[in-house]
Design a protein that fits this description.
Blueprint (H helix, E strand, L loop, with lengths): L3 E7 L3 H12 L4 E8 L12 H13 L3 E6 L5 H11 L2 E4 H12 L3 H29 L10 H38 L4 E6 L5 H9 L16 E6 L2 H4 L7 E6 L9 H6 L1 H8 L3 E7 L4 H17 L7 E6 L6 H10 L6 E3 L8 H22 L1
Parallel strand pairs: 1-2, 1-3, 3-4, 5-7, 5-8, 8-9, 9-10
Antiparallel strand pairs: 6-7
Helix pairs in contact: 4-5, 5-6
The structure holds guanosine-5'-triphosphate and magnesium ion.
Length: 374
């Protein structure tokens, strides 16, 4: 495959830099040849400061094989236009990159629709801004001399697309709700796996369900919610077959600085997993302690934004084969003491039986509550 040479402009913090690189590298057709850092990427004209933009321009003019610049921040239509005008090559902002990754990975109709919705929501403010820029300057907006009429038509078209996609998503959502009701009627106990991208959700899902869904160190490997039934082993269920069947749900991962409209677009599938009886919140314990803290806070932020019932959360410290007991303790001490925690390793199987016991006992207690209520 031909690789395009690209330049990255990001913040100087190690965590942010590594995450931006991880995002770009998860698109295997891009190769980063140079990384520039800037303390602020919200300057009015170019996002980055004038000096940095000039430095970038010089670097690109000396390296004519560079095809794209990635700016690790949300850029307005004006900033994108100004930068492309200066650099004469295409500029991609953080949201565009995340959308492109999602596009390249989406396999199900619903996830494709969700991404289309996010895409339209990404475009709308840009069209609005173009129209504003145009009326301000009394000129025709956009590079191609696009007239106001065209902007209006585009705007209406996007609005129409948005309501069309929303309708389709709503009917997919209804279908899901129907399935959910059926599951509830059958007394199914639902456990979902949520957490930052690459925290090990699918690896654990595969291990528990004997599945072979794709796992990878690259970001956003899973984009569709997958549900499988599984039977807890008999050593766990104490010959209580009635309580040994559960449903396990794998979900799309989180990332820091995820724009609100993207969470919105994925809400229906995420919400479904958050309505589970038990939500396993995965944290990769193999990482640097500061990065763990950041990922924990940003994932918890998304969960809170989705109004998750915190009493259903249970933290799993994954990849425990790569952390010693002091580090595991340090991570646990850092986190909310009201949420229980368990270290697990899908590689060595450590903690797996405890996890199965936990699921079993939660299911048993839920069933006895239901019986008690009726
Ligand atoms: N050492 C070790 N590596 C693990 C373990 N679990 C997962 N991994 C690795 O972590 C990486 C990410 O795993 P995935 O299961 O794809 O992560 P995910 O949370 O599903 O990621 P997304 O689908 O991108 O949200 C892969 O390279 C796995 O091999 C573990 O217990 N130990
Ligand atoms: Mg996955």
């Amino acid at each position: 495959m031909r690789q395009q040479k690209v330049v990255l402009v990001t913040y100087p913090e190690e965590f942010t830099m590594e995450e931006a690189k991880g995002l770009i590298e998860s698109m295997s057709n891009y190769k980063i040849v140079k990384t520039f850092t800037q303390k602020y990427l919200n300057r009015a004209r170019f996002g980055m400061g004038m000096g940095k933009a000039e430095e970038l321009k010089q670097f690109i003019s000396q390296n004519s094989d560079i095809e794209k610049v990635f700016v690790d921040e949300h850029l307005s239509a004006k900033q994108l236009f100004n930068l492309e005008d200066l650099l004469k090559i295409s500029v991609i902002d953080r949201e565009r990159l995340i959308l492109d990754i999602f596009y390249s990975r989406a396999t199900t109709t619903e996830s494709k629709l969700q991404i289309q919705l996010a895409e339209v929501q990404y475009e709308i403010p840009k069209i609005r801004e173009n129209a504003r820029l145009m009326s301000k300057s009394g000129e025709r907006a956009g590079k191609g001399g696009m007239g106001e009429y065209v902007v209006d038509v585009q705007f209406r078209d996007l609005k129409r697309q948005m309501s069309f996609i929303k309708d389709k998503l709503a009917s997919a959502h209804l279908k899901r709700q129907e399935y959910r009701k059926q599951r509830l009627r059958k007394g199914m106990f639902i456990v979902s796996l949520v957490g930052y991208t690459s925290s090990g959700k699918t690896t654990l899902f595969n291990l528990l369900t004997d599945e072979h869904k794709e796992t990878s160190h690259s970001l956003f490997t899973t984009l569709s919610t997958v549900t499988r039934s599984l039977r807890l082993p008999s050593k766990v269920n104490e010959n209580d077959p009635e309580n040994s069947n559960i449903l396990l749900v794998d979900t799309v991962g989180f990332i820091s600085r995820l724009p609100h409209y993207m969470i919105e677009a994925f809400k229906s599938t995420l919400e479904e997993s958050l309505e589970a009886d038990l939500i396993l919140f995965l944290i990769d314990s193999s990482e640097e302690i500061d990065d763990i803290g950041r990922k924990y806070s940003s994932s918890l932020g998304v969960l809170q934004e989705l109004n998750v019932d915190q009493s259903k959360l249970y933290i799993l410290l994954t990849k425990a084969d790569k952390a010693n007991s002091e580090k595991l303790q340090e991570i646990m001490d850092y986190m909310d003491p009201s949420i229980s925690k368990l270290p697990v390793s899908s590689k060595t199987g450590d903690g797996l039986e405890e996890l199965q016991n936990l699921i079993y006992s939660k299911k048993k207690s839920r069933n006895s509550t239901i019986l008690g209520e009726s």
